[in-house]
């Protein structure tokens, strides 16, 4: 086949030079815009980043222009693990101390877990719940909390006037008392309530047998449930924090637990008073997950939830 009729398209050196000049001009103008707004690019996150993080209205980054405050906080618990607080229990001096600061001030938190449960720390503007944690204020997290004796350091810079809260970010622990106020500038604290010292504990009256789920062991015949709501105090009154509360099984039986709650728990051998004994530990078990262990030695195996220490259960291997 011949190629006599095939057409070829070419350009001239002048046209190519003109195109290169236009491209160079675009690069120069774009560079001028970029470097002219250099402070903007490095001082604020891109709007898309804030949108992906769930912020519909991105806020300015707080800048440290004032004083530095150091706050030492420790997680403490009542003997029954129902009441939680920072530094001291309610009614005692220095319980959940209020921090007062001005816009531009920075507070450095030195946090240590002096309790036996798992805890984590953060600052939020939300008046309830465990969300909205401000970046750089966290120590640990609900999925990677501080164990007993562990600690860490974080900071919070006041970018505006208002009331903020330092809390334990483990679900439920704020509601049990682990929350303190940070008052920035002339913010007005509404509905401020001064808690009175708690009344002396009365000796508990014997509970009727009919109000308790049987504490007698039952033969293991399926997974042990961590029921919905067990992350809130109360299930210990009816031995329903783990269901069944006490099971028996033959040596070599695989024992399975199912977290049927929406809150993370642990299945940890030992007791709240004595701590883990190292025989088995599920670590943080999120809602919907399962954990299993096979016990080959006969004996009694008490266990509990480190996150919610009122949750206790028992296994007897025969």
Structural features, described:
- The chain is mainly beta and 318 residues long.
- The protein folds into 3 domains: 24-60, no CATH class; 68-184, Sandwich (Immunoglobulin-like), CATH 2.60.40.420; 212-317, Sandwich (Immunoglobulin-like).
- Helices cover 11% and strands 29% of the residues.
- The chain contains 3 helices and 17 strands.
- The chain has helices spanning 13-36, 38-43, 47-52, and strands at 68-77, 84-86, 99-101, 106-113, 121-124, 151-157, 162-168, 179-184, 218-219, 224-226, 246-249, 254-259, 268-271, 275-281, 290-294, 299-304, 312-317.
- It has a 6-stranded mixed beta sheet, with no helix packed on it. Strands 2-1-4-6 form a 4-stranded mixed beta sheet, with no helix packed on it. Strands 3-8-7-5 form a 4-stranded mixed beta sheet, with no helix packed on it.
- A hairpin with a 3-residue loop joins strand 13 and strand 14 (275-281).
- The protein starts with 12 loop residues before the first helix and ends with a strand.
- Mean pLDDT is 84; it is low at 39-45, 47-54 and 192-212.
For the secondary structure, the number of strands is: 17
CATH architecture of the largest domain: Sandwich
In whole angstroms, the N-to-C terminal distance is: 93 Å
CATH class of the largest domain: Mainly Beta
Give the helix tally.
3
Fill in the CATH topology of the largest domain: Immunoglobulin-like
Nearest-angstrom radius of gyration?
A: 30 Å
Could you write a compact summary of the structure shown?
With about 325 residues, this protein is mainly beta. The chain has three domains: about 25-60, no CATH class; about 70-185, Cupredoxins -  blue copper proteins (Immunoglobulin-like); about 210-315, Immunoglobulin-like (Sandwich).
């Amino acid at each position: 086949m011949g190629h006599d009729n095939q057409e070829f398209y070419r350009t001239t050196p002048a046209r190519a030079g003109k195109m290169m000049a236009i491209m160079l001009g675009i690069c120069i103008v774009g560079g001028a815009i970029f470097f002219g707004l250099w402070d903007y690019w490095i001082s604020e996150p891109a709007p898309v980043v804030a949108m992906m993080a769930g912020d519909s209205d991105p806020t300015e980054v707080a800048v440290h222009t004032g004083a530095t405050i150091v706050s030492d906080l420790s997680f403490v618990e009542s003997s029954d693990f129902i009441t939680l607080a920072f530094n001291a229990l309610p009614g005692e001096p220095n319980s959940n101390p209020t921090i007062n600061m001005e816009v531009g001030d920075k507070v450095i938190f030195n946090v240590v877990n002096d309790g036996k449960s798992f805890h984590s720390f953060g600052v939020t503007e939300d008046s309830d719940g465990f969300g909205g944690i401000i970046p750089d204020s966290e120590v640990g997290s609900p999925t990677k909390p501080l164990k007993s004796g562990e600690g860490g350091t974080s900071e919070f810079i006041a970018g505006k006037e208002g009331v903020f809260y330092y809390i334990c970010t483990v679900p439920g622990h704020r509601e049990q008392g682990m929350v303190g106020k940070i008052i920035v500038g002339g913010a007005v604290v509404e509905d401020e309530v001064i808690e009175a010292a708690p009344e002396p504990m009365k000796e508990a009256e014997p509970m009727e047998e009919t109000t308790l789920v049987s504490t007698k062991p039952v033969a293991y015949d399926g997974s042990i449930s961590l029921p919905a709501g067990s992350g809130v105090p109360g299930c210990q009154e009816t031995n329903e924090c783990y269901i069944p509360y006490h099971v028996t099984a033959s040596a070599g039986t695989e024992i399975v637990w199912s977290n049927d709650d929406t809150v993370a728990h642990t299945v940890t051998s030992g007791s709240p008073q004595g701590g883990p004994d190292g025989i088995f530990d599920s670590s943080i078990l999120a809602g919907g997950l399962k954990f299993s262990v096979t016990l080959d030695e006969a004996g009694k195996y008490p266990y509990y939830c480190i996150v919610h220490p009122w949750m206790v259960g028992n296994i007897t291997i025969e």
